[in-house]
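writing this on my phone so excuse typos. first protein, seq and then structure
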Amino acid sequence: MGIMDFVRGGVREMIVARPDSAKGLIVYKHPENTIPKWAQLTIDADEAAVFFRDGSLVGVLRTAGVGQRHTLDTQNIPFLSNLVDSFTGGEIFKTDLYFVTMRPIRDAKFGGNFPPMKDPALEITVSPRIHGEFVWRVVEPDKFIVNYLGLGGTPTNDAVGAFIQTKFMNAVRKTVPNFVIRQKVEIQELPAYHEELGQTFLQKCDDLSDIGAQFVGLGDFRINFSDEELKRIQDAQDRYADIKAKRRAKDDLTGGNYMQYAAAEAMLGAGQGMAKGGESTGMTGAGAGMGMGYAMAQMMGQAMQPGPVPGGAPHGVPQAIPQAVPQAIPQAVLVACPGCQAQVPPGKFCAECGTSLAPPQPRPCSACGTVMAPGAKFCANCGTRAA
């Protein structure tokens, strides 16, 4: 039976409603643009009906109540007078009718990789991943259609969801890097800040009020890493742990007096080196070398003892045994650190700050390729500053 059949027959029982097959759609457009007067409009509690004519918004209706329907008549619904088709004697409403779901959409998913971030402790750059769910809803169905969907064809749920997901993911991508920098959190520890991050995601979300929607809440989410990223993090953690262990060991030596320990080690090494250097002369050379090492250690011990009282002792008082004048560690066994400028024993790394003690190597200029002298700050050929 066509629309005009309803009109001519005076039938007032035509039902207008969203079909069961379309209940899952966020937006459903009624297929007919003419509706007879007295038709019965059914609107579910979780949706709204939005009326347009000639591209302009005419009105919005919500549910009529339990077991109730809206009777489409200008006496009941005044804004319907703007939909009356005069060519049919006022018996037909001409309209584009949309049903818009207003219940919370709870299965909205988001996820992807973050831009590269530098870990503040390990000093490596990694790109964590995030996957989760959020909740959103339409709160002003007329704005949602006018400012987002438009009056063309009805979009699929996937198309609508992709737009909202992009908006939410923008907030997530802005939040996490700022959180790492502000809180100085190691990136691999981000999952431990689940609740705090979730609250911040919602606070930083774009305002959707201009399209009549809003973010309502956050479901579960997970932050993780690829196998390759996990290996890089583990390697960096191992290196970091080794550095911290060496620093603790340095502080523990002789009550924290690492220079005293290093000087004693240098003296012992000098004695051993002299002993080895005399191997060609047999035990005599070895004894001399060991004696020299012992003498240097004894000199260091004497340097730690208090000296005699200036001016000598009064007459009749036993003279104090002269003490050796403290001697500085021979410069031959110390080198200047290029990092902290401390005088430290030679080796691969500085005993004070860990800087490499290897001499600077010649390297090519980044601009012209000319090989620069070790330690040069500018290229002698083109004047470019050394990288």
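second protein below, same order as before
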Amino acid sequence: MLDGIDEALIERARRENAEFRRLLAEHEQYEAQLAALNSLRYLTSEQEIERKRLQKLKLLGKDRMLAILRQYR
């Protein structure tokens, strides 16, 4: 998920920053929902829209987590 980032830095942010913890939990939740949708052979148009929405939310959260981690460096 946060490849190339020092695990110690991630753990420190997880311990000290409530927003980072929330974003990390949301990221994992979005990942699970996307995996469920991606496991389907065919998606309805509603499911495809939901998949795109989840991808965008996941990316926004990851961008914010990376911004938080930059503050910890």
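Residues 7-72 form one domain. thats all i got for now
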